[in-house]
Design brief:
Length: 850
Amino acid sequence: MNTAAQAAAASREPLPAALGLSGEEAAARLLADGPNLLPGSEPQSFGRIALGVVREPMFLMLLAAGAGYLLLGDTAEAAFLLASVFAIVALTLFQERKTQRALEALRDLSAPRALVLRDGRELRIACREVVCGDVLVLREGDRIAADAALLEGALEADESLLTGESVPRPKLPGPAQRPGLEPDGENGALVYAGTVITQGTGLARVLATGGRTEMGRIGVALATTQAPASRLYRQSRRIVRGFAGAGLAVAVLLVLLAWLRDGQGFVASLLPAIAFAMAVLPEEIPVVLAVFLALAAWRLSRQKILTRRVDAVEVLGAITVLAVDKTGTLTQNRMALVELAGADAAFVADGDAPLPASLAELLECAMLATPLKPFDPMEKAIRALGDARLGPDSKARLGITPARQYALTPQLLAVTHAYSGEIPGRYGLATKGAPEAVMDLCGLRGPERETVQGQVQDMAARGLRVLGVASGEWEGAGLPASQQDFRPRFAGLLGLADPLRPTVPQAVRDCREAGIRVIMMTGDHPVTASAIARQAGLPNPDDVLTGAEIDALDDASLQARLRSAAICARLRPEQKLRLVRALQADGGTVGMTGDGVNDAPALKAADAGIAMGERGTDVAREAAALVLLDDSFASIATAIRQGRHVDDNIRSAVRFIFAVHVPIVGLALVPALLHWPVLLLPVQIILLELIIDPSCSILFEAQPADPALMRRPPRPAADSPFALRNMAYGLLQGLGLALALLAANACMLAQGWQAGEIRTTLFVSLVAGLFLLVLVHRHSVHILRNPWLPRLAAAVAALLSLVLWQPWLRAVMGFTPPTGQGAAALLLILGAMGLWLLALRYVSAALRKA
């Protein structure tokens, strides 16, 4: 190929100055347009981020509770709560930096150096100094520095990180085109920043730099896209805020009633109010969320799933739609030669069947037309199959060097390698390229050409990238200047594809069984997308929604169309983002998988973005909430299972928290209203918290998973552990316990029991009632299978024995030594509690069946 760049290099003479900018003009444009860098924002200081975090009501409540415990002298509980605060703040600080790191990763994809024409000469400059109007000198293996229009030459460019299409795209000089990625064009004159030249050389004039490039537009979208806030955290904030406000208001009223109405001193009035406020404060909720999600993330990491945003673990349990990228997610993101077709034979390279002799010649010819150390992924695939299937004495495997290589040209999309024969003046020819170009070179006409065209169409309909191969001889004193002077014989066709991952069909079946829709979103051709969808087992593989159709639909029409479409092809990055938002607006909880730069904005906007770790780009990994370290699509089903398990256990813990707090609130509030002796002191509530926290954070977190977890539909997005239906069951359980304890208190007061003895009996009854709650709690797997239950029971028994039998601790807690009548009252109270809890469980089960 005789380009101006090659001619100048050969003659060592300067290139015409008109081809490039002058140094002065380039400097002026750099000053006017700014450096060729992707957009970014200045990172916030840690102080500002931390200040925003601690303003959250949840963290303020934890801080207030910790400070209260410090004032009351309970340093152990205060240390536990404050450590939780600092851990959550640190985690949030880490998450707030993700956008900045994602933009930095985008910058790393930019070419660090670029070869340009300045003042008529080739000059290698820093990528940041490239300006609009510069002429780039492009060669095989180069990463392109900016968006540009091809002026001369013929290239193939790997644009998969922008388009999701695994096959390199041909690039030929052509008429002026508007800047912007055009996924519907097979050929084009535009090349894009961040993409890689896989074959050919050429010159291209820069049209856009920095944030105005396609890569830059993705950076802008990524910076302006907000990751959705977790519904779980939003709802928990409302619950904590509501209870805290109500508790504070009632506590103030209690102080005023005792101080002004009953004439008690201010400090004496303050004691029951503090006890009530502590009883109402549901401080276990943020602790439970932090512990459950952190441990779930740790378990996922052991299965090669990295959690970058812990709240996404719980969201996994609610996913209703899984939007998957094709290239690198469903497929392996590597080209493979999967099919050979000759005039009278065909071969599919997916087993151990022997390669027919006629097709062995075809494969050998294709290898001879391929460089020994190729850069192009299709050429790598050809050599891989040839090395595996051809014998060691094959000419193609012996590493012979061609006498001349004819490159791809705008006039002929084919390459030819000429090899010297044993007789001087005789050459062997090996040609490969676009089927139409190879047929033209061979002079195929009439029925023979129609037969080959039919084969090409059949292979393309199955999503294969098709290449034609030809072989021939040349005899003469020297080789001609152009390969168009050859007349080789048509040898056959090669079918290349990006293979489906072996685990994908089963993973798709698992998702469908779990009630999750799987939608493919790809920048690839609709035919290729349909073929992969068919192999993966997606429904309606022929019903394809293209990017052009999406642009023609308004939001409402798009939502309606997405309810049936399972494949979206020829998508630009902003269209993927729009599709994710349309699915969310239609009530879906969206999980998005991807591995390319083009997937990053959609990954960030999805409820649960899942990136591929091995082959995925840094940008995709930084934008996602989870990363599959082994790139196994089957791991998504594992992650969803873990998300559903966490959701089940959080629901159980929330029901338990509300069930426990009702009797505590009752024992703190009712005596103050009825002028009874104080039943719960603040120090006793602290002791209860030492029992409740491990029950929530350890016992329920370790509850085994329901075996039918992945055979039930996703929970509705609006349904959460804090929904009234879930909390009501716990509130009713707690109400029964509170009534039993208050009735027992009234009876003991009537019989003349001392306040300390009543307090001791009711406290031990309440602790025993907590274990009754655990035993009769609604679990999918029986609680006795929980390994932590006997350990927790032993620890609580030891703690109670210590505070009841150690005189100093017993005095601090306001207890008296246990007595026989206290033990009898304990059994009666437990009997009443047990009857209530069993009756409630029976009624609840009957209502669920009805």
